[in-house]
């Protein structure tokens, strides 16, 4: 019956499908749906850039306008992956430049982006509108200058937590006077100076600017001028917020802030004098998102005073300087809180995290809508986790990180198995879980039994035997990404269900008990997996022993076989 | 602070080091040690700690006995069980499971299939915290069973642990203390005040993005270096007290009045003053400590002094708080008798026993 619909109708129907999963499902129905869908697909999400090649992407989706690519495995964030492991974006841009020049949006995460890539983007895509780079590296402000100069319709330039070299610092002045389309500009991660006059002029002429995140080089007096020009801002990242509260500048800033009634999201404060925070108080009541996780200069008292006013807060990222008491205040003030991240304030001080299970329990009691958590804490207990599970059954992301990776329940000295078990049992929608603390195979039994929606699981220093990993592989039907470090899972677990890995995006195992021989046999058995062994030093020189443990293994499903850009230290078996 | 210090004493004596009674807190330590040994008694039945002890060595250096014959934890930890039963513990079910278990400890997953489907309905229906098999399972029975194989195998193992005779391979449990020792050897951060020397620094732990690490580290450094108006960072100063064996550090920025600072110092140094007051007073130790300390501080026994930027020792309390924290380099709780020469304090409270 459906085949009698003309294609235009199908296309129109499909235009309402935005989620890539829905579209993937639709394309499997029949050939004609597959074709209609592929010509109408505008946005493509590729979770692992090595799972497919750019040429195949373009041949299937010739009209793609928005591309999201992810490169390095997640543990690369924590220095567990070589810098030159891979994830180069250049081949993608090259291919798109030849075959698909109506690209408008590019979103990259953990990829290597060279200035040459940025220059190629700037030259090749006349309608280019949006560039979002998260945790990428390899480029300098010269590349940004190319984007600024050439992308005439640029709407969004969003740089999040990238390592960027800044040789010249003049990229901002490269936006031509004719550029008035910017709606979102985030350069908070840049370390260098910017041309402040150019910035002011840019803000003045971009009347659609809604989101602006500045770096530390933008002083308060310039911030004040910018805000005066752009009271329509919805998202603000203050750079430097250090000045004399007695000064004229501060007064002006206070006055201007009061007029910024549209601001819903606040971040930055990379340099801050806590005594200047009262300038923000007037807008606190409107905030739905607050990120002070890069502002170690605000200590607990001031933090609490500020957050107390943010009654509508839904998303809060802070440092553990807030303390358990501060979290109690958050719990009583921010009833609509959905996402909380508490980071370590001094990442190099391994000794002292300032929050414990008490803070978390308080939050769970006060904020029943909590669905996303990242919590770095000194200690945890099963009772606390059980209480949290009862109070907040809506968790989608639950990531707990104890300072000591194998710390037991702080009160009973037991493993934390039951606590995490309670979380997975109660939170039926849980998609992402990171566990830590002393954990045995038991916790994986629970995860396998209860975590039916789980897509990503991060394990470190946990478990006792292969059984742990097998419970997870058997039980979590929707598992997409599994990353394991320093846990005693070995060949039996790795080879227990090799077909499972084709249903997953990737598996990372480092410092486990998997041997070279097992990896080889897995690779032989499953041609549509790339099994990569990453060697750091000279472990594998000259004839590797099959019985030797592999230090780092990363395997992922792919349609295009072993990649050709791997460095010498990465072996694809 | 005193209780964790006494735990320090205990664990150190357990691992063969000599117990030193730095604080002369013989009363406290006996109270706490009995508490600790109670806990370890309780835990003996529940933990196979040797197997869970992690050593952060090179890959391949882990001892082979770790993954063989591991005994899963029993589900019989009472407190947590009442709060949150994760696995069935009813006797009826136990015996049902026992039947399938005893016939073979080492059965593979496929062997447990039949046993499992029998068990499933009876097991998972109690209480809202129990896994509701009927509701959430859809699709073919085979796939359901497949999905739950892990669960059943685990249940078999757990319940076989409950039955004492059935598991000849059950390992001897190691008491809590050993875990703590092993723990302290690896990573002494269980104790709040532990020295960093014992810690093993692990690559990539805690898992914080390098960008964040580098940025925060730079910001902290900058804050410490900057002087004058723009000092937002923490302001740690050493606090010494006459007669105390070690110094403390406080972050002056966490207080905003002299009152707050003095209460915090009271709490920190209370244990020293208890000793020195003697034990004539009957009532609770805390009350004794607080009042005593206040009297001591406000009385003529102890005064709070600070060394300023010029190196002079001054009495705390004369200048406005903001000015004080700008110029304070270190603090010292001096005996009243040594404080002669600084401004004399009027004592409202009558002198106490000392």
- Mean model confidence by pLDDT of chain A: 92
Shape of chain A: globular
Specify the biggest β-sheet of chain B: 5 strands, mixed
Structural class of chain B: alpha+beta
Family (chain B): Belongs to the Aux/IAA family.
Domain PB1 (chain B): 234-338
InterPro entries (chain B): AUX/IAA_dom, AUX_IAA, PB1-like
Pfam families (chain B): AUX_IAA
List the helices and strands and how they pair.
The complex is a heterodimer of chains A (about 575) and B (about 350).
Chain A: H1 7-14, H2 20-26, H3 31-40, E1 43-46, H4 54-60, E2 66-70, H5 90-99, E3 105-109, H6 115-124, E4 130-134, E5 137-140, H7 141-150, E6 156-160, E7 163-165, E8 184-186, H8 196-205, E9 211-213, H9 220-229, E10 235-241, H10 248-259, E11 265-272, H11 281-284, E12 289-291, H12 300-308, E13 315-319, H13 323-333, E14 339-343, H14 357-366, E15 372-377, H15 382-391, E16 397-402, H16 417-426, E17 432-434, H17 441-450, E18 456-460, H18 466-475, E19 481-485, H19 491-495, E20 506-510, H20 516-525, E21 529-534, E22 552-557, E23 570-572
Parallel strand pairs in A: 1-2, 2-3, 3-4, 4-6, 5-7, 6-8, 8-9, 9-10, 10-11, 11-12, 12-13, 13-14, 14-15, 15-16, 16-17, 17-18, 18-19, 19-20
Antiparallel strand pairs in A: 20-22, 21-22, 21-23
Chain B: H1 2-14, H2 26-44, H3 49-52, H4 78-83, H5 91-102, H6 112-123, H7 133-136, H8 141-162, H9 176-186, H10 210-225, E1 236-241, E2 248-251, H11 258-277, H12 285-298, E3 302-307, E4 313-315, H13 321-327, E5 330-335
Parallel strand pairs in B: 1-5
Antiparallel strand pairs in B: 1-2, 3-4, 3-5
